[in-house]
Every structure is written in structure tokens, then in C-alpha cells.
Specification:
- It is a single chain.
- The chain is 70% helix and 0% strand.
- It is mostly helical and 378 residues long.
- Helix 10 packs across helix 15.
- The chain is globular.
- The two termini are 43 Å apart.
- 36% of the residues are buried.
């Protein structure tokens, strides 16, 4: 059978819409005989097996991480570092290009979702194997997110057929159309008529500036469009995954930027890396009483992890480092103002101050994303 990656073309949409039609036509019959979670599980497994390259490796990895998850949850272990490392090792090997067996599509997202499900099992309970599989391998979020939370996904599975409503179809359609326009129209236009014509190897300053801005615009439309399509299609089958973008280039500071750009990755890193690391760093005597320093160390480490999560290449890591530095500088400035320091932005009227902050932030983001793109002629 032809391999059909998520959102790769018309074949994927036809396949997905066929499944949506099947659910809505037969839902009254299905709910009498088979739980919604079972229907979704079967659909996910069939899609992975027939439509995704190297499905055997993905299913093997699924069994591997589920075994770790099951042992951890069943025995109610509270120490998470060791199982988290066991879960992350295949992703690290994949990034380092060591083990061909872990050349798996979506391994980064699968890894983060597994860690979240394991850590939150203490508060939200255990996922069954069917729920775990559907959550990890859910087709619309398999390759590029958004990164859902297991307990929220489980709630939708339990509501089951109740979420299959024409009101949700309407809501989903609106989001889907925006996603299609962003990814397949705006992103393609930017790519074809602005990004591609630029010589990325040019060291002329104007060419580099043009390359940086064109990539930032392209990345937004491409990634935000993909995420919106994922949200829209998911809602059609009763799964309300979270939105991933909210006008990021209007953010006035780094903290707000990451509440708007790749929102689910930022919140995941905050909850499952930054907060535990911040707490852990308080144990070092040399850092006692140095709360601001601890915050900034944890912030920079978090963004370095974000960079490495994308890949172990210098431009991903340096881009993450830049975003970490931006956030640390902003954090220092906020603390300085709170302690009575002069807020230099108050020199301007509010509307000018706000847009000045936005101007600084968008240019800082464009600079960091320019490195992320790998187009810097170094």
C-alpha cells in the first residue's frame, strides 16, 4: 500500500475524511457494541501499519516505552529520572545517528508524550494499552505535534461518541480551513517567491537579513498551518487537542513569545524540565539564596534542551541558547523593575512602549530562528 504521511497530500485527507464519515454514519450502531477507544485504537494501528514507513520499528518502540511505563506505573515508583532516561535513550540515539532501529518518524514527540504520561500517572491514573497507543501514535499529532497531555486525551476517549457532533464538525472545519490556507497557500507562496530565490550562501548583509525574515515568515505559516490542521481534523473525531500558535510575532517579551509560539512544547518543557530542574538546583550550597541565578540557569538549560530536542547540530543548539539568553535577560530586567529599578519603557506612551517591545522581540526571534534554519552562511 502507498505510504501516506500525515498532511502529505490529498490522499491523507481523503483517508481521514473517510474515517470521519464512517464514524458519523455508524456511531449509533458502534456505540452499542464497541467502545470509542477501541475503534480509535484499531484505526490508529491500521494507519501506522499500512501507511507509515518502517511501521515495524514504530510498533517495536511502542512496546518498548509501554513496558517501561507499565513497570513504573504498576509499581508506583516515585523516582522518575531513571525511567525517563530509558525512554529518552532511543531518541538520543536517533539524534546522534547511532542505531538504525530507532530511525522512527515522530520519535521526539512520542518520547515527550510518554514521559508526560508516566510523570502524571501519580495524579491522573494509568492509561490502558489501547489508550496509551492511541495517545502516542495519534496520526494528526504524530510527526509535529501539538504535544497533548495524556489525561486530557483520555477524557476525550471516555466521552467517546458524545464528541461526534455536527457542532464540532463546524468548529473543526473553520480551524482546518485556516490551517490549509496557512500551510498550502501562504507558506508555499512565501517559500516559492521569497525564500527560495534568496542565495542562502551569500554573505551580503542585506541578503542575510532578507533570508532571516523570509524564513521566519515561512516557518510561522508552515508550522502554524500544520498545527491548525492537526487540531481541526482531531476535533472532527472528538479529540480536542490544544492549539499551538497564538500570534507569536505580537509578543512583547520572550516569556510571552513562548506562550504563543509552539505553545505545547513550551508548556511541556516548563512542567517537566524547568520546574524540576529549578527545584533541584536549590540543593547546591553554592546557589543558596541566589534565586535569580537559579532561575536563569534553569531557563538557559531548558532552551538548550529545546535546541537539542530538534537535533544535535550546532545551529539548533545555538538557536535554543539564544532564546535562553533572551529569556534570562528579560527575567533579570523584570526582577530589577520589581525591586524599584527604573522601567525605561515607561518613558514612552503605553502604545509606543508596547510596539517598541514587540519590535525588539520580533527581531530577536527572527535572529534566533535564522540560526535555527541552518541557512546562516558559516
Amino acid at each position: 500500500m502507498e505510504k501516506i504521511l500525515p498532511f502529505s497530500g490529498i490522499s491523507f485527507f481523503l483517508l481521514f475524511f473517510s474515517f470521519v464519515l464512517f464514524l458519523y454514519v455508524f456511531k449509533n450502531i458502534l456505540k452499542k457494541f464497541i467502545p470509542f477507544s477501541t475503534v480509535l485504537f484499531l484505526a490508529v494501528i491500521l494507519y501506522i501499519y499500512f501507511c507509515i514507513p518502517h511501521a515495524d520499528k514504530i510498533l517495536f518502540f511502542l512496546l518498548y516505552v509501554y513496558a517501561i511505563y507499565w513497570i513504573f506505573v504498576t509499581n508506583k515508583y516515585h523516582e522518575t529520572i531513571f525511567p525517563m532516561m530509558l525512554i529518552a535513550i532511543p531518541m538520543i540515539m536517533h539524534k546522534m545517528d547511532i542505531a538504525p532501529i530507532f530511525k522512527i518518524l515522530g520519535i521526539s514527540y512520542i518520547t515527550f508524550r510518554t514521559i508526560q504520561a508516566m510523570v502524571d500517572s501519580h495524579n491522573y491514573g494509568k492509561l490502558s494499552f489501547l489508550e496509551f497507543t492511541s495517545f502516542l501514535l495519534f496520526p494528526t499529532t504524530l510527526l509535529a505535534g501539538p504535544i497533548d497531555r495524556s489525561y486530557r486525551f483520555q477524557e476525550d476517549l471516555q466521552k467517546g461518541y458524545e464528541n461526534l457532533t455536527f457542532a464540532n464538525i463546524g468548529k473543526a472545519w473553520d480551524i482546518l480551513i485556516i490551517g490549509v490556507l496557512f500551510k498550502f497557500v501562504f507558506a508555499e507562496l512565501v517559500n516559492k517567491f521569497w525564500l527560495i530565490p534568496i542565495d542562502e550562501n551569500s554573505v551580503v548583509l542585506l541578503d542575510m537579513i532578507n533570508s532571516a525574515y523570509s524564513y521566519a515568515v515561512y516557518l510561522f505559516f508552515d508550522f502554524a498551518g500544520y498545527s491548525a490542521m492537526a487540531v481541526g481534523l482531531s476535533i472532527m473525531i472528538g479529540i480536542n487537542i490544544p492549539m499551538n500558535f497564538n500570534h507569536p510575532y505580537l509578543a512583547p517579551n520572550p516569556q510571552d513569545f513562548w506562550r504563543r509560539f509552539h505553545i505545547t512544547l513550551g508548556s511541556w518543557l516548563t512542567d517537566y524540565f524547568f520546574k524540576p530542574l529549578y527545584k533541584y538546583l536549590h540543593n547546591f550550597n553554592i546557589l543558596k539564596g541566589r534565586r535569580l541565578l537559579i532561575q536563569n540557569l534553569a531557563i538557559i538549560a531548558t532552551f538548550l534542551l529545546m535546541g537539542m530536542w530538534n537535533g544535535f547540530t550546532w545551529y539548533f543548539i545555538f538557536s535554543g541558547f539564544l532564546f535562553g539568553i533572551y529569556s534570562a535577560i528579560h527575567n533579570i530586567y523584570v526582577v530589577y523593575v520589581k525591586k524599584g529599578g527604573y522601567d525605561y519603557f515607561t518613558f514612552f506612551p503605553d502604545i509606543i512602549a508596547l510596539n517598541l517591545k514587540r519590535f525588539l522581540m520580533i527581531n530577536a526571534a527572527v535572529f534566533a530562528l535564522y540560526f535555527f534554519s541552518g541557512r546562516v552562511p558559516l
